[in-house]
TrEMBL record:
Name of the protein this chain belongs to: Secreted protein
Range of residues in the leader sequence: 1-17
UniProt keywords, alphabetically: Signal
Species name: Colletotrichum orbiculare (strain 104-T / ATCC 96160 / CBS 514.97 / LARS 414 / MAFF 240422) (Cucumber anthracnose fungus)
Length: 90
């Protein structure tokens, strides 16, 4: 019983520690300009990560929520924001 509780707690902590890449959207489409602006205003920097779509995305901090990110995007002029989980092994 103790072992199963330990494993459950470990999984829960692992899920909370997942990395996320976020970006701003305008009318549902990715916006490089607003993503960089939002990253700068939220974190005072932006991080460039090139994936298959060659997008510049911003790391979401572990304590941030998607709502936090979307609010930051809309405050810069974008209409929304999105995040994708980014596996640690990449």
């Amino acid at each position: 019983m103790k072992l199963s509780l330990f494993l459950l707690a470990t999984l829960a902590l692992g899920a909370n520690a997942a990395n996320y890449l976020c970006w701003c959207t305008v009318d549902g489409y990715y916006s490089e300009y607003y993503t960089k602006l939002s990253c700068w205003r939220k974190y005072k920097k932006y991080l460039k990560y090139s994936n298959a779509n060659s997008r510049d995305e911003c790391w979401r901090k572990p304590g941030d929520t998607l709502t936090d990110w979307t609010e930051k995007c809309t405050s810069t002029g974008a209409s929304g924001g999105s995040c994708d989980e980014y596996p640690d092994d990449k």
